């Protein structure tokens, strides 16, 4: 089973690597990083490089697509090659999914028209403008349409575990969760916008502004 994870300049590392680390634990899954061309692509802060092993033209029938997000998604919204690739492969996928602002690319390709979907909380309005209906849920499923979207960054791990369950069974997902020892016990409870106080939101905005 082939899982394709698109890469692009200024992607968010955990959006791609989180689902990758979950899915590659299953022996029958082969994960390929795909993009416009082969070679290294750097994350949004430039500190980490990940190698793209295949071009979009070389991956024409993936079983699953996991489209990550990141600052770099904005410049891809008018990218005809990505839009065309998503439109071409989606009819044959078992699931087409996104993490964080990767949902914007699914929406730009028309795959989320009229559907509820989630993304990073800062991109909700833009997702609505692209034809989806943003909701503040961690993972949103539309199984008849074979579409799943995950919210910001860390939620991609949750979505990937759910994918393992859908593709195989609950025990496979639980075994995968055990292998990565995914047992979240965060020291703070500010991981959702509704839980964060004003000073936390202000500091987050300051961090984001410094990365542009």
UniProtKB/TrEMBL annotation:
GO terms for biological process: regulation of DNA-templated transcription. The keyword Lyase applies. It is an enzyme of class 4 (lyase). Its EC number is 4.2.1.103. GO terms for molecular function: cyclohexyl-isocyanide hydratase activity. Residues 2-165 form the DJ-1/PfpI domain. InterPro entries: Class_I_gatase-like (IPR029062), DJ-1/PfpI (IPR002818), INH-QAR (IPR052158). PANTHER family: ARAC-FAMILY TRANSCRIPTIONAL REGULATOR (PTHR43130), DJ-1_PFPI DOMAIN-CONTAINING PROTEIN (PTHR43130:SF2). This is Isonitrile hydratase.
